[in-house]
Design brief:
α3 runs parallel beside α4. With 219 residues, this protein is of the alpha+beta class. It has seven helices and four strands; from the N terminus they run αααααβαβαββ. The protein has a four-stranded mixed β-sheet with strand order 1-4-2-3. The radius of gyration is 39 Å and the shape is elongated. It has one domain: 2-Layer Sandwich (60s Ribosomal Protein L30, Chain: A), CATH 3.30.1330. It starts with a helix and ends with a strand. Helix content is 45%, strand content 13%.
Length: 219
């Protein structure tokens, strides 16, 4: 009976042999610990070549410049300055570009030479009924002043065209005064030589509103 019991133990051990717990080989453990890991993709901001605050300031300046250009275009098409989004303002300009009179406003023959700079603005956007510069006129002229600063020391010519009264001579004097007021306001932005001219013609109810305009030019 003793022999039979021992045999049973041996059979059981042979069927379910104990499996000793062992650690992985040393080289395998070292490889798992020190193997190169795939590099994580760098965030997009890492490609910025200047400090983040400077980058933000650069973008802000670009947006301000774009807003200034839109202000000038709005004025040329007879639209008041807008505080809407840039996309909305661009849409309004596209609509204005479909208007024949708006297109003619930018295509008027220049009375002044302006090979380096030439700008036409409706006087109604700059002056009120008393011929004083309005707040929106100041905003427009402030933008124009920024553009003119690059011509410091040059001769800047300003002409006003008026057909407000029946007397052309009276209109010419009024036009000269408006041109002078415009020059005086713009002179705050820098040093230049200013020439002002007034053009007057007889009032004509059928004449387009583009007869009432300012021209600003640099040869």
């Amino acid at each position: 009976m003793v022999f039979t019991g021992s045999l049973g133990v041996l059979i059981a051990l042979s069927q379910n042999p104990p499996r000793p717990k062992s650690d992985p080989p040393v080289l395998t453990a070292l490889w798992e610990r020190y193997r190169p890991r795939p590099r994580r993709p760098q965030p997009h901001l890492a490609t910025i070549n200047q400090p983040l605050p400077d980058e933000i300031a650069t973008v802000g300046t670009a947006l301000q410049r774009l807003g200034d250009r839109l202000t000038i275009l709005e004025a040329q098409f007879g639209l008041p300055p807008s505080t809407a989004t840039l996309e909305t303002r661009l849409t309004a300009l596209e609509d204005a570009a479909q208007d024949t009179e708006g297109i003619n406003l930018t295509a008027l023959p220049a009375k002044l030479p302006g090979r380096r700079f030439y700008l036409t603005l409706p006087t109604a956007l700059i002056f009120d009924d008393s011929f004083q510069i309005t707040p929106q006129g100041e905003r427009i002229l402030n933008v124009v002043s920024k553009d003119l600063q690059q011509y410091e020391g040059e001769t800047i010519r300003i002409a006003a065209h008026i057909a407000h009264n029946q007397n052309p001579a009276t209109n010419q004097e009024l036009a000269y005064q408006l041109a002078q007021k415009t020059a005086t306001y713009l002179q705050q932005g820098g040093a230049a030589r200013w020439v002002v001219v007034g053009y007057g013609s007889e009032q004509n109810p059928d004449a387009p509103a583009t007869l009432q305009r300012l021209e600003i030019a640099v040869d």
